[in-house]
Amino acid sequence: MSFIIEKEELLPLLNSRDIRICDCRFQLGSPDAGYNDYKKEHISGAVYFDLEKDLSGQVQEHGGRHPLPDLETIKGKLESNGITNDTLLIAYDGGEGSFASRFVWLLSYLGHQKVFVLNGGYRAWRDAGYPIDSSQMNYNMPTEYHIDLNEHVFASFRKVKDYTMNRPDDIVLMDSRESKRYEGIEEPIDKKAGHIPGAVNKVWTNVLENGYFKKKEDLQSNFTSIRKDKEIIVYCGSGVTASPNYIALKEAGFKDVKIYIGSFSDWISYDDNPIE
């Protein structure tokens, strides 16, 4: 199953009652910017999901900078927007790919079967002259959302810790951050520099080009050093930019792909964890 939908495919679906378009625009370091952009203009009919208020939980001692949201909170957010388990969900961001991909992974973890990222994001939609407006939609209708966690896409801290201690041959740990952060040369965000022992580096921006996910054959080429019968655990700094690599791996034909949602910021919150 693909997680990517093109703008040309979305356009004829705009007036469907069984679809919900989810605006996930966000700016790290300027948390109100995404919602302010949404209020100015957005894809017609879209509702807003905030990375830190809706798609992440409260930061604590462990769990990383963007931990999993409280399940009852995200359940309530979905229901308040008239979303059921059968709703077709289309997520977009500004064209970065990471915030919409976070939504797609999270909903996949909740067990949602029909969730996609809009290829090219809002920029591609607007540049094509497709319908936008500034009215905030109210889908306040009685719905019930049933969470059925898909643990096959989730890697716990314990699993990653076991990997670093035992280095099993059937698992690949993948660091999605830029190479200078992976190598520990630069660390502009987290308190420690380097990477989780044993991780390989596949920079998340390499799966995108001008805001679009690359073609399947190019994504496959990006991961040629990794066998498809391996279990892949992807992480980044806080579990956000790991998400495009998750989607790219699935598009490239990898079956067993998980995200360590706490990522490096969770890993270094334990003082005794080693770093390479």
What do these coordinates show?
The chain has 276 residues and is α/β, with parallel strands linked by helices. Helices cover 28% and strands 15% of the residues. It has 10 helices and 13 strands. The two termini are 35 Å apart. The mean pLDDT is 96.
Key terms:
13 strands; 276 residues; 4-stranded parallel beta sheet; alpha/beta
How are the SSEs ordered, and which strands pair?
Blueprint: E1 4-5, H1 7-10, E2 19-23, H2 33-40, E3 42-43, E4 47-48, H3 71-80, E5 88-92, H4 98-109, E6 115-118, H5 121-127, E7 132-133, H6 157-166, E8 171-175, H7 179-182, E9 200-201, E10 208-209, E11 212-213, H8 216-222, E12 231-235, H9 242-251, E13 257-259, H10 263-267
Parallel strand pairs: 1-6, 2-4, 2-5, 5-6, 8-9, 8-12, 12-13
Antiparallel strand pairs: 3-7, 10-11
Summarize the structure.
The chain has helices at 7-10, 33-40, 71-80, 98-109, 121-127, 157-166, 179-182, 216-222, 242-251, 263-267; strands spanning 4-5, 19-23, 42-43, 47-48, 88-92, 115-118, 132-133, 171-175, 200-201, 208-209, 212-213, 231-235, 257-259. With 276 residues, the chain is of the alpha/beta class.
Arrangement of strands in the largest sheet = 1-6-5-2-4
Tell me the total number of β-strands: 13
Distance between the termini: 35 Å
- CA gyration radius, whole angstroms: 18 Å
Helix content: 25-40%
Biggest sheet, in brief?
Answer: 5 strands, parallel
Secondary structure category? alpha/beta
How many distinct helices? 10
- What's the overall geometry? globular
- Strand/helix succession: EHEHEEHEHEHEHEHEEEHEHEH
Overall pLDDT level: 96
Taking pLDDT < 50 over at least 5 consecutive residues as the criterion, the unreliable ranges are none
Beta content: 5-15%
